[in-house]
Amino acid sequence: MIETKQGTGHELIAPPQPYSALIFDCDGTLADTMPLHYQVWSTILSGQGLELLEDQFYKLAGMPTVDIIRLLNDKHGCNLDVDSLHEEKERLFLELAHKIQEVSAVADIARSHFRKVPMAVASAGIRSVVEHTLKIVGLRKLFDVIISAEDVKRGKPAPDMFLLAAERMGVASEHCIVYEDADLGLEAARRAGMRAVDVRVLWQGQPQRHVQGCC
Q1: Could you list the residue range(s) of the whole structural domain that residue 57 is in?
Q2: What is the DSSP string of 111-144?
Q3: Model's pTM, two decimal places?
Q4: Is residue 137 domain-shared with residue 197, that is, in the same domain?
Q5: Does residue 25 have an active-site annotation?
Q6: One of 25, 32, 181, 198 is an active-site residue; which one?
């Protein structure tokens, strides 16, 4: 579970003015899912005789599951079946999803902006899992727009997810603030011409990065 610094939260991740819309990543940003994702990856890869170290896993945060499987195939010279392993990974995750909790400081930002500005979720996860995760933590009703891996040809760090979210909200990209917890997502926001808040500023022992400019 994510542990946040005492006495900090909103003041560290408040969206910098001016802005007209907010876009949130899901895993590790709105929902504290990353340890669970790593647990599932470890389980399915051990069955294949492979290991994904925790620091390597977090460097891949924001990358779609199918792309991670292809990367593992290239790295280890193996031939993991992308479709079947993808299905197994998502199935195991959903079986354990009842354990998920929100990232409170980020969730509170979303709640405080509900019906005040347009808001979207843009996640590298598949839609069914993203929707389920948001429902478990009680946040699904806050968002009119959900962008998932099925909606774009290129995942993060390409800007496609964030640009599509802005388009569907009817807001220019330069007027959007992105909330992210991963380097790939922050790079995607930069390429989309959006400012971004790195929510890892909340975690104990993480770098004190706040707002990333778009250029």
Answers
A1: 34-98
A2: HHTTTTS-EEEE-SS-HHHHHHHHHHTT-GGG-S
A3: 0.80
A4: yes
A5: yes
A6: 25
